[in-house]
Design brief:
The complex is a heterotetramer, with two copies of chain A (82 residues) and two copies of chain B (152 residues). Chain A has 82 residues and is α+β, with helices and mostly antiparallel strands. Chain A has a single domain (2-76), classed as Roll (Ubiquitin-like (UB roll)), CATH 3.10.20. Chain A is built from three helices and seven strands, in the order E-H-E-E-H-H-E-E-E-E. Chain A has a five-stranded mixed sheet. In chain A, strand 4 and strand 5 form a beta hairpin. The model of chain A has no long low-confidence stretch (mean pLDDT 92). Chain B has a single domain (2-149), classed as Aldehyde Oxidoreductase, domain 3. In chain B, the strands form two sheets. In chain B, strands 1-4-6-2 form a four-stranded mixed sheet, sandwiched between helices. In chain B, helix 2 runs antiparallel to helix 3. Classes of the chains: A alpha+beta (82), B alpha+beta (152). The interface between B and C is medium-sized, with 33 and 33 residues.
């Protein structure tokens, strides 16, 4: 199992804030493919080039990274803070 | 460098924060403060409020990482960052950055550097709530990315 | 641009000054503050106090002139300068510069510009009173002149 | 008559803060020549290149400037403020 959290505009686009997914191990790429495979809003909102950053267990990851079982994964749209 | 980062819904008190920083920093000489406030008339429709979201834990540690990076570039004695989240009305303070150094140029440049990064890299998301009842998530600005690129 | 300059022996209150400036400046967005404090260990002998002298009337109008010059370079909404004179002990605030603008870069740069000029051009003279009882007038620094030359 | 005011290190070097001088009109150069002619500390402290700025009636003057009768003149050593 992993917990996936969505932030900012993604929460509205996907219609949820967080979810728990079955997970046997894999990478950030695996997770994104699985989410995109839901089609519709998911495929559009998480299209390659649209997702700016992923966070695994509170650490921002660069490129492809492992997601261990039990992890918290954050999917972050472009930041607009300050 | 002494470093303290707070992200919360609470208002901040510039006078108290600066006095505490100056006392902690010892013989600082120069303190630069930046206060960012919610603007009410950024676009054609008046803003009723701004809603700020962050990623608890991740946002704080990212800001601290950026501040520690600033301390490798300039001789800093102390740094304090306060960023607010939740609903904020026009005129309210959103962000406070304080930099203490023995030298004013270091304090100025480090504060500007940290602000450029806060605007472009720190995990915050803004939702604008307008006077006419409409709402929208703010899109990332290119001009802020340009400001950030100056330092690289 | 709203402009206010005070030179006096009275302590200043950063929090109050910033709140007033932000209120006056309307939809400012960005306020940069510089607070200069008396350093206690600038040289080999500890400083007991600093005595600052100015030329009443002339000093205030020179500072105002420099601030108005800054307003021709950057889009400023409000500027407040407070400079203390008389005897000041280590840790006390000497100078406060506040710049309000819609844009943070303008506020940062104008505040730094004004500080560079205050350090090199404004008619103030410092006398250092040391812990061992000795006293001396501070000599003008070349590094501050260099900082000022950056802007010309 | 004019009133001449001395600031900073000049007050110590010259041993006075201000003085009133007979004056029938003239320039800043005339005033400096007259003060230097006192010799000793005056000649040393006010040597050409040492005096950074003169103020006539609250206005900083550049180069040679007229000093009207009744004026207040300030003689300013290099500034060390901020």
């Amino acid at each position: 199992m992993i917990n996936v959290r969505y932030f900012g505009v993604l929460k509205d686009a996907l219609g949820l804030e967080q979810e728990t997914l079955d997970w046997q191990g894999g990478t950030t790429g695996d997770l994104l493919s699985r989410l995109r495979a839901r089609g519709g809003d998911w495929d559009a909102a998480l299209a390659p080039g649209k997702v700016f950053r992923l966070v695994v267990n509170q650490s921002i990851v660069q490129g492809e990274a492992a997601i261990p079982v039990g992890a918290e994964v954050g999917i972050l749209p472009p930041v607009t803070g300050g | 460098m002494r470093l303290s980062v707070t992200v919360s819904a609470d208002v901040f008190d510039l006078g108290q924060e600066e006095a505490r920083l100056a006392a902690e920093a010892g013989d600082a000489g120069a303190v630069v403060a930046f206060v960012g406030r919610v603007r009410g008339q950024d676009g054609p429709v008046a803003l009723a409020s701004l809603f700020l979201e962050h990623y608890p834990g991740v946002t704080e540690s990212e800001i601290a990482r950026i501040a520690r990076e600033a301390a490798t570039r300039w001789p800093l004695l102390a740094c304090r960052v306060v960023h607010r989240v939740g609903h904020l009305r026009p005129g309210e303070g959103i962000v406070l950055v304080l930099m203490a150094s023995s030298h004013r140029q270091a304090a100025f440049q480090a504060a500007e550097y940290l602000m450029d990064y806060l605007k472009t890299q720190a995990p915050f998301w803004k939702r604008e709530c307008f006077a006419d009842g409409s709402e929208r998530w703010v899109e990332a600005k290119t001009s802020d990315d340009d400001a950030c690129r100056r330092w690289s």
